[in-house]
């Protein structure tokens, strides 16, 4: 069994509780994706309860997709608690280059050292303050163009950074890898990237190696997308097939489909 398959098996055995403070578009899909995979999602964002919940969850995912002022406070409180108690937390900087509100919120969250950051190329370039705005929530940059930004961010935060797209790039500042799986239907379903950030959080629960766990999350996700696309007619049936495929995904499929490009140490 490959390392990726072992991480997936561990996730299913432990069924980690994953708190989400995510956007209105992603909530339902992210919860269904996590349930299909075998984790336990909870969308908990009120400032009155986020700290209490963050102290008991196995992992936390924070996503700024549909940002508003009360949520910014909740995000800060939850990330601070996660950091304090040593719970892994993932940051998804949706459309961070688009507005000053997003840039300022993201900068404050970065200070709380996310265990992992997952975004598309334009988001990672903007977050590293290298200038791209993207086009709303969609990327206008190639994953390759974001590699140096990802390495710089990983070094700055001490965490893992994943740039996702046609080929995913992941680094912890020392190691790097590329995942060449996936399917072009995946960006045609809204919030599939947001749900993927929740999946990264689920894989980060209870692991010794954050880089390997993030890599396993990206691999599982992309391979499920690739298999699901074989029986999809378009984005609608793809979304349904994707949930079914995540539910059934096994180590043998991972080993059969895996197209991993392990790069040298940086
Ligand atoms: N063109 C593509 N070909 C193959 N796989 C893709 C492609 N685009 C995306 N994917 C897959 O979808 C995953 C997440 O996609 P993406 O980077 O598009 O997220 P995103 O832009 O944050 O999405 P969203 O904001 O809609 O949630 C990738 O990790 C990859 O597995
Ligand atoms: C479409 C959209 N708008 C804000 S968040 C979101 C989900 C994809 O990022
Ligand atoms: Mg996104």
Automatic annotation (TrEMBL):
CDD domains cross-referenced by the UniProt entry: THZ_kinase
Transferase found in the keyword field: yes
Catalysed reactions, as listed in the record: 5-(2-hydroxyethyl)-4-methylthiazole + ATP = 4-methyl-5-(2-phosphooxyethyl)-thiazole + ADP + H(+)
Top EC class, one word: transferase
UniProt-listed InterPro entries: Hyethyz_kinase, Ribokinase-like
Residue numbers binding substrate: 43, 191
Keyword Coiled coil: no
Pathway linked to the protein: Cofactor biosynthesis; thiamine diphosphate biosynthesis; 4-methyl-5-(2-phosphoethyl)-thiazole from 5-(2-hydroxyethyl)-4-methylthiazole: step 1/1
EC numbers for this chain: 2.7.1.50
Cofactor(s) essential for the protein: Mg(2+)
Family assignment from sequence similarity: Belongs to the Thz kinase family.
Protein task: Catalyzes the phosphorylation of the hydroxyl group of 4-methyl-5-beta-hydroxyethylthiazole (THZ).
Name listed for the protein in its UniProt record: Hydroxyethylthiazole kinase
Species of provenance: Pistricoccus aurantiacus
